[in-house]
Amino acid sequence: MGSLPLPDFLSKRLFSSTPQKKSLNINNINQNVVHAQYAVRGELAIKSEQYRAQLAKGEGKDLPFDSVISANIGNPQQLDQKPLTFFRQVASLLENPELLEHEQILLDKLGYKSDVVERARRLLKDVKSVGAYSQSQGAPGIRQSVADFIERRDGYSSDPANIYLCAGASSGVNALMNVICSTPQTGVLVPIPQYPLYSATLRLMNAHMVPYYLKEDANWATDVGGMRDALKEAQGKGIDVRAVVVINPGNPTGGSLKPEDINAVLELAAEEKLAVLADEVYQMNVFEGEFQSFKKGLRDLQKSEKNKDGKFDEMELASMHSISKGMVGECGHRGGYYEMVGFDPEVVAQIYKFVSIMLCAPVIGQCLVDCMVNPPRPNDPSYPLYKSEYDGIFNGLRQRADALYEAFSQMDGVSCQSPQGSMYLFPTITLPEKAVAAAKEEGKKPDEFYCLRLLDATGVCIVPGSGFGQKEGTLHFRTTFLAPGTEWVGRITKFHQEFMDQYR
């Protein structure tokens, strides 16, 4: 099958010989933007959307598939995950408060429950209108809800003054990185494989990503020894390493850290005076064991014998969460928060200034954060439906994760860690030498070659491991397990067998 044409903006940039007549051109704009990469929305995603457009226009009769499966990005509602009713009913009243003047109709005719109405009234009292700016840090009442949630989750108090509401966790990462990265010699330790938000953001900051490798054979656990080696090597090159990123549960790996792993990272960070950035947006998606936050790990250590010299007392920790993942899946509403503990007040003031320049996070997203951290509870009128919807989504994710895992376990040359959490699997793939040579002929990395062939043959879009980073000499790909049903899993296994037979 021939290649699809590149988007106009790419083809013009790559192939135009016309003299530049504009003030801006590809050579004089910010080169940090030019060189930043974001694999989950890269070449494969662009090509899959072109296929999707062809099928929508009825022009895909020659394609060997009748639908595109976007397994490249954690975008639950694009893949038919239904919104939680409580969240959307509250949002509808916030967007159109006049509906509250007809409360009995809402309750008697439209299926709203009294706790939905109460939540909407409380949130409107806090924000006044979702069309108005909130405080830069976020609406006070919602920050209090977040602090209460953290206290219930961890068993330790949380101060709403330390909570910042943001437009998804990525916005929080951007704010923190902008403040942390002061010179081109600033470095941040980032796990490999990593979610490319971190490498791309550091590239935009003109700062150094210092990679440390996770242990695949231990369900993608952290390797503190390897982390320390990476830190010392970077410092030996004159890089000022100031922070360490940890993604738990993992993206793209799907791993879930044990408390001892969390403690080991915190101990290293305390010894080396590193701020810890804990990306915990998948904390609802844990299939094996239970989620433990870095905040709880830190507070436990601060109370333990290990802190008799006070080495954990001054630790800086920023923990992030989001409405985009879990069973909520409200990616498009752009809501999240980060909690900062142990930061110097003067640094906090600068972070506040930075977020003030951005004005505030979307207020409707802030309100959905409130619903996430304070959902219906037993005995609330909305609880039975909420519980049914929540469990249905969670169990569906688990079933599809298991189906994919079983399929990968039976595929020639593929090995995969069991699904522990998040929305992803990140299997290792061993390709025949002929396939590696064919990839080289096309100017592609072997895992990119495989993923492109899979897309062309099946309409299933996944992301090559090279987009996330991987140990030299290994190949992987990342797939979500969000798409409904399991038919598309069969597409992958059929393609894989034919691909391996072709290049064996």
From TrEMBL:
CDD domains, per this entry? AAT_like
Family matches, as Gene3D superfamilies: 1.10.287.1970, Aspartate Aminotransferase, domain 1, Type I PLP-dependent aspartate aminotransferase-like (Major domain)
Domain annotation Aminotransferase class I/classII large: ranges: 115-486
* Protein name from the UniProt record: Glutamate pyruvate transaminase
Q: How does it assemble?
A: Homodimer.
What keywords were assigned to this record? Answer: Aminotransferase, Pyridoxal phosphate, Transferase
Q: Which GO terms describe its molecular function?
A: pyridoxal phosphate binding; transaminase activity
Which residues, if any, are the signal sequence? none
Matching entries from InterPro entries are given as: ALAT1/2-like, Aminotransferase_I/II_large, PyrdxlP-dep_Trfase, PyrdxlP-dep_Trfase_major, PyrdxlP-dep_Trfase_small
